[in-house]
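Q: Could you fold this chain for me?
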Amino acid sequence: IVFNIQNQSNVIIRNGTISNVNQNAIFINNSNNVLLQNLVIENVTGGDAILIQNSTNITIDNVTILDNSQNAFSFINDSQVSLTNSTVIINNVAVTNQIGVNVVNTDNVY
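A: Sure. Below is the predicted structure, expressed as structure tokens.
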């Protein structure tokens, strides 16, 4: 995990590239008011590119996910998630369990 955000408020991750990660690239848990912006996340194996759970007021803007082995975005038990101007590109045709956006028990995804 490159960014492990737990029990935090008012977090900003902006303007960067995350490559070749063996678990989730970004894990957010029990946090609120988080902004992920202008990011490229590529070649994530063994986990989701971005996994967010039990969190509120999450904004994801201009994030590109390339060739991850599992979900690009997973939202579990979240509220108020904004996903805009973001792209998922799958170039690895051998990947069979990949889902672009996984939403479980989450309210107000827009």
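A (continued): The chain has a mean pLDDT of 87.
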